[in-house]
Amino acid sequence: MFELMEAVKDAATRLKRHYSHNSVSLSAGCEVFYQFISSLRDFGQDFEGFKSHIIAAVREYAQNTKQVKDTIAGNVDAFIKDDSVILTHGYSRVVVNALLISHRKGRRISVYVTETRPRGLGIKTHEILTKAEIPCTIILDSAVAYTMDKVDMVMVGCEAVVESGGIVNAIGSCQISMIARVFNKPVHVLAESYKWTRLFPLSQYDLPTHNDHILSFDLVSTPPTSGTNSPLPGTPRRHHPVLRTSDSIPSLLFSNAPPKLPPSSSSANSMSNVMPVGQAGRNPEVDYTPPEYITLLFTDAGILTPEGISSYLVTMSLRSESA
């Protein structure tokens, strides 16, 4: 049994190293699977019998995880009313599944989804929902506050649920939840129980995904020039947007014509060139949303408050440490 547990640990380490961009949710899943394997016992069987027992148990575990999303959809179903307008962030399989099931039951729902830069995952959500004939509009990440007053609820998935009762999710989730609180809109999180993890971050910088390169500055030596506003050598250059003379303020505010796109071979290329490639790596992919900005968590273990999740995870952590 000891060698099996070591093999599971080694496999988990190699998985996390290979999929380092998604290390938080992967770590949570590996931890739950490790606990599941460690709960299995050799019931006096020979090696082959015990091996067959483990394989059968693991296959059953994998099959159960596929049913988790439908269980969560059933738990959240009563909270999705007719004519609801829902804001979601990026792409979450469990959220999309819940919306599709609600639509199939005849609920009239409309969805706003954030573009979710830098990976643009909201576009995938838009494609799936519109194909299912659910009214869906992509909004800019920076347009969340502008949109919030039209929204009945915020519904997001997550990469992990942490011991504080907060969540780790695609970058931008925290600010969306903070804006929702200002507008007095509920924030509901749909989370599979295998994403519960033993982390207790106190800030964004306690996440295992954070490193010194994220939010770092380019230090560019600038030769001194005349004028009192010249930057000192070694200080970061600051670039400010310039209003083009062709884009006069009256025409931007009062013109009925649609805005002109910058010339390019395709709109996709023009959008992808907004941020230089070298700068994208300086931005985080996930952030931490504290529990005070979350209304309810819908899981396959039931509907829980952030406090309920926190109490459960801390208790389980203490039990595993004492075992």
Brief rundown of the structure:
The chain is an alpha/beta fold and 323 residues long. The chain has helices at 2-18, 23-39, 47-76, 93-104, 122-131, 144-148, 173-182, 249-254, 267-272, 277-280, 306-322, and strands at 84-89, 109-114, 136-139, 153-156, 160-161, 167-170, 187-190, 286-289, 296-299, 302-304. α3 (47-76) crosses α4 (93-104).
User: Globular, elongated, flat, extended or rod-shaped: what is the shape?
Assistant: globular
State the helicity in percent bands.
40-55%
What's the alpha carbon Rg, rounded to whole Å? 24 Å
Distance between the termini: 16 Å
Describe it for me?
The chain is an alpha/beta fold. The protein has 11 helices and 10 strands. Strands 3-2-1-4-7-9-10 form a 7-stranded mixed sheet, sandwiched between helices. α3 packs across α4. The longest helix is centred in the first third of the chain and has 30 residues.
List the defining traits of the structure above.
323 residues; alpha/beta; 3-stranded antiparallel sheet; 41% helix
List the helices and strands and how they pair.
Layout: H1 2-18, H2 23-39, H3 47-76, E1 84-89, H4 93-104, E2 109-114, H5 122-131, E3 136-139, H6 144-148, E4 153-156, E5 160-161, E6 167-170, H7 173-182, E7 187-190, H8 249-254, H9 267-272, H10 277-280, E8 286-289, E9 296-299, E10 302-304, H11 306-322
Parallel strand pairs: 1-2, 1-4, 2-3, 4-7, 7-9
Antiparallel strand pairs: 5-6, 6-8, 9-10
Helix pairs in contact: 1-2, 3-4
